[in-house]
């Protein structure tokens, strides 16, 4: 439609859906309030950050435990080789 052919509604606006000003004001206020209230988003972000930190800590602990176990295995194998070499030299 061309603007000159559109009819004006009760409030002087052209075409389409017209909301009455009091309703529109409440709608705008509710919309703005919902956008500015970030408490639920902030809480979710904090929960996710805490969960991430717990997972990182668990992974670090697991890594340290596995590294210590591997180091112990390496030392045991090294000692076994040294013992084997000594036995072979004595023969």
Please tally the β strands and state the result: 0
Computed Rg = 36 Å
Q: Sheet with the most strands?
A: none
N-C termini distance: 106 Å
Uncertain segments are 1-6
Please write the string of helix (H) and strand (E) elements.
Answer: HH
Mean pLDDT: 80
Helical element count? 2
Q: Give the percentage of residues in beta strands.
A: under 5%
SS-derived structural category: mainly alpha
- The shape is rod-shaped
Level of helix content? over 70%
Nutshell version of this structure?
The chain contains 2 helices and no strands. It is mainly alpha-helical.
Verbal overview:
This protein is mainly α. It contains two helices and no strands. Mean pLDDT is 80; it is low at 1-6.
What are the salient characteristics of this protein?
91 residues; mainly alpha; 2 helices
Secondary structure elements and pairings:
Layout: H1 21-36, H2 39-90
């Amino acid at each position: 439609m061309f603007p000159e052919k559109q009819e004006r509604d009760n409030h002087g606006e052209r075409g389409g859906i017209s909301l009455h000003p009091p309703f529109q004001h409440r709608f705008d206020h509710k919309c703005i309030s919902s956008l500015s209230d970030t408490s639920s988003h902030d809480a979710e972000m904090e929960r996710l950050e805490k969960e991430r930190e717990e997972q990182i800590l668990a992974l670090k602990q697991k890594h340290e435990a596995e590294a210590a176990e591997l180091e112990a295995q390496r030392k045991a194998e090294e000692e076994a080789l040294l013992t084997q070499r000594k036995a072979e030299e004595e023969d």
